[in-house]
Amino acid sequence: MTSVAGTRLVLRGRGIVPGRVAGRALVSHETISGWGGIEPATGTIIERRHELYGVCFTGKVLVFPGAKGSSGWSGFFQSTRLMGTAPLAMVFTNLTTKAALGAIVTRVPTVTEFDDDPVAKITTGDRVEVDADNGLVVVYGPRPGHPR
């Protein structure tokens, strides 16, 4: 259940990769392709028609619907870990085997299967805490003008 307590929103889901981190959100309303969609050396989305084309996800909490494309998705995200360009955490709504495997090999805290849609509730720049040990994402705000 989603709850608003003071200035925070708590989303409850299922932790896939354990860990706890806090950082700024980067939200995509579109799925993300690994092979041909990201540049692992820079942590940048390079899919030309993607809403986040040219945006770097390194060190951000990546909030997105899930993976698209081939099973190579996980390999490209693993490369971001090896190159030091991985997202800080992953928060996604559509659990697939490629997204789960990608999260595991990237080794960043990951939460999915939420009680409410994080893509709709979180805005790029929000400060979020990902507690994948307990399946929680806490969003601090709302920021002025935030549509919550």
UniProtKB/TrEMBL annotation:
GO terms for molecular function: lyase activity. It comes from the Bacteria. InterPro entries: PMDh-S-like, PMDh-S-like_dom. It comes from Streptomyces violaceusniger. It holds the Pfam family AcnX_swivel_put. Keywords: Lyase. Residues 32-111 form the Phosphomevalonate dehydratase small subunit-like domain. This is Phosphomevalonate dehydratase small subunit-like domain-containing protein. Signal peptide: none annotated.
